[in-house]
């Protein structure tokens, strides 16, 4: 009877399992694997803080931990920490590169800014009292080129009651576009200039004796804004600013028919603001959606309250990161 090569079968089976495991790994190359930690004697160091997509121009807070290695010299716990901890980056920059470690175990934080796309490596070293390298750790990941999609949307509701006449209006502002870095050497400065902003005034209801509102969308307009985003350098994220609208104008055309007789009113009216920036907000890394204030709408609400108006508004600025593959 022919003998069975059990060892050979086992080795081939193991190889198949390893290949299957590799195929099942997520394809998001930006997710940082567990940092490689190499213990040489007294200490162990590790790096934390990177997960998900890493974008050129963004700033991230990373944490470095050190602690005694139980299998160190003579198995004796050290009374003090490493002489120093150093952190270096292959492509990016750090707010500082060395940290004194007084306690036997502890943690230090660093701000890392990804300066360019490509393969990045962060290396941490712990030095003993003789300033010799005692332990190292390395984290490797990909830095992507990213841009940001923004959207500004505002709604103002105005219900007006004057005697037996009741009118409801909805005013909307909308602008959206894509923020990109025009200079590859400054990936943290993104912009989208001369982006269109649209204004629309729509009637929600109308009630008056013997009258009919013919125009359901009596007002519309447009203008242009410059949108910019820049890393604030603190690890918080991006500070987004929107310039005041320019070349902005309302076109009003309103027709009401009462007892069979039409009455039309309208005209063109400029839209302007003295605030610069007009709108601003600081977003965390990756973006989000947050309420913002718009001075034109603030003034409209303040001037109308208490004069037969029930009026309010809400405005939202959204920022969404888009990765270029």
Characterise the protein shown here.
The chain has two domains: about 25-145, Immunoglobulin-like (Sandwich); about 150-325. It is elongated, with a radius of gyration of 31 Å. By secondary structure, it is mostly beta strands. It has helices at about 5-25, 295-305, and strands at about 35-40, 45-50, 60-70, 85-90, 95, 100, 105-115, 120-125, 135-145, 145-160, 165-180, 190-205, 210-215, 220-230, 235-240, 245-260, 260-270, 280-285, 285-290, 310-325. The model is unreliable at about 1-40 (pLDDT under 50). It contains two helices and 20 strands. Strands 10, 11, 12, 13, 14, 15, 16, 17, 18, 19 and 20 form an eleven-stranded antiparallel sheet that branches. Strands 1-9-8-4-6 form a five-stranded antiparallel sheet, with no helix packed on it.
Question: What is the fold's blueprint, element by element?
Answer:
Blueprint lengths: L5 H19 L11 E4 L3 E6 L10 E10 L15 E6 L3 E2 L3 E2 L6 E8 L4 E10 L5 E11 L1 E18 L2 E15 L9 E19 L3 E3 L5 E13 L5 E6 L3 E13 L2 E10 L8 E6 L2 E5 L3 H10 L4 E16 L1
Antiparallel strand pairs: 1-9, 2-3, 3-7, 4-6, 4-8, 5-7, 8-9, 10-11, 10-20, 11-12, 12-14, 13-16, 14-15, 14-16, 15-18, 16-17, 19-20
């Amino acid at each position: 009877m022919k003998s069975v090569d059990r060892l050979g079968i086992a080795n081939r089976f193991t190889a198949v399992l390893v290949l299957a495991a590799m195929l099942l790994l997520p394809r998001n190359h930006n997710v940082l694997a567990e940092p490689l930690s190499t213990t040489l004697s007294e200490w162990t160091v590790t790096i934390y803080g990177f997960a998900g997509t890493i974008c050129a121009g963004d700033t991230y807070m990373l944490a470095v931990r050190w602690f005694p290695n139980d299998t160190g010299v003579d198995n004796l716990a050290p009374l003090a920490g490493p002489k120093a901890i150093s952190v270096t980056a292959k492509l990016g920059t750090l707010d500082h590169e060395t940290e004194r470690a007084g306690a036997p175990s502890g943690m230090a934080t660093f701000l890392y800014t990804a300066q360019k796309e490509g393969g990045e490596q962060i290396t941490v070293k712990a030095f003993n009292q003789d300033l010799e390298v005692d332990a190292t750790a390395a984290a490797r990941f990909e830095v992507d080129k990213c841009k940001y999609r923004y959207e500004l949307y505002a709604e103002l509701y105005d219900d007006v009651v004057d005697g037996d006449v009741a009118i409801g209006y909805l005013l909307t502002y909308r602008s959206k576009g894509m923020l990109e870095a025009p200079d590859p050497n400054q990936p943290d400065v993104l912009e989208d200039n001369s982006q269109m902003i649209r204004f629309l005034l729509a009637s929600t209801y109308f009630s008056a004796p013997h009258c009919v509102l013919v125009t359901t969308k009596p007002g519309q307009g447009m203008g242009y804004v410059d949108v910019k985003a820049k890393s604030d350098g603190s690890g918080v994220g991006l500070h987004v600013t929107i310039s005041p609208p320019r070349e902005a104008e309302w076109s009003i055309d309103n027709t009401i028919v009462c007892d069979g007789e039409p009455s039309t009113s309208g005209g063109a009216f400029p839209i302007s603001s003295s605030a610069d920036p007009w709108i601003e907000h600081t977003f965390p890394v990756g973006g989000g959606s947050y309420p913002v204030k718009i001075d034109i709408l603030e003034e409209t609400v303040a001037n109308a309250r208490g004069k037969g108006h029930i009026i309010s508004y809400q405005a939202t600025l959204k920022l969404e990161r888009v990765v270029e593959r």
